[in-house]
Amino acid sequence: MSKTILIVDDSASLRQVVAIALKGAGYEVIEAGDGQQGLDALKGQKVHLIVSDVNMPNMDGLSMVTEIKKDPNYKFTPVIMLTTESQEETKKKGKEIGVKAWMVKPFKPEQMLDAVSKLVG
Questions:
Q1: Engineered SS bond to 38: which of 8, 45, 69, 76, CB 3.0-4.6 Å?
Q2: Which residues in this protein are found as 4-aspartylphosphate (predicted)?
């Protein structure tokens, strides 16, 4: 059975690049345009991994992850932040709330797939 990955980014073109790479590797993909949509997309779905941007309108990625981790169903769901944000302080906060990997844009799809496969197998 294929694994499902939620991509949350306010850039449709970036979501498309990530989705194409993931689908090409055999994953199912759900997309959301901001943190609030990301939370809504999770409702009752089995998601094996989340790839999220940090800076988004309505709800940023770190706030979304904080909310997600409160839900027992997603407490252990791995999260990869894919962002232009590379400040140590932001990364540290991400780690504290449960982010498993941090990738800075622009990124190579192979790098991302490598991180994804390590986290979801």
A1: 8
A2: 53
How many CA atoms does the CB half-sphere of 2 hold within 13 Å?
A: 11
pTM of the full structure: 0.95
Q: How many domains does the chain have?
A: 1
In a structure prediction context, what are the per-residue pLDDT tens digits for the chain, which is 121 residues long?
789 999 999 999 999 999 999 999 999 999 999 999 999 999 878 999 999 999 999 999 999 999 999 999 999 999 999 999 889 999 999 999 999 999 999 889 999 999 999 999 7
Cα–Cα distances (Å) from 35 to 10, 106, 113, in that order, read 9, 21, 22
**Tokens, residue 87:** 């400040």
Assign residue 88 the CATH number of its domain.
3.40.50.2300
